[in-house]
Amino acid sequence: MEKTEAITLKLLTKTYIDDLNQFELPEEQHQFTALPHEISDLTEGQYGVMIMNGEEPVGFFLLHQTDRVKEYSANHKAILLTALSINQVHQRKGYARKGMTLLKDFIQDVFPECDEIILAVNHKNIPAQKLYHNVGFADTGKRKEGPKGEQFIMALQVF
What's one GO MF term for it (predicted)? Predict the structure, then answer.
């Protein structure tokens, strides 16, 4: 495993678009998420977040403060996490885990009004379920039907 001491989370800036557009995933992962280049222009209430190793983006995800959150939680202070991906060439180095470990502090700093992070993970996506569980997300018991089948709704409290 490579050192992950330089891992940070950073809001998306145009400086890194070309790097993000080079992201690739194996099909068994791609079926459950979107690559950065597949995400069209962000609308109000959507925020791209990069997982950075120094000055290089190695991962990406979206945060939503839109009406879409209501599909997953009745909490009006919740924020929704979607489309997490780690570029294939940077996988198995601890970047996803470290990035998700930094998420609570990032939310407190950038979105102080939020007190909960929610997400949906496909019931077949065992590696993602383990990742989220290992960084503190808990299964809410809620389920949602997604494009690839049943999704577990998970939540992480932010205090």
Answer: acyltransferase activity, transferring groups other than amino-acyl groups
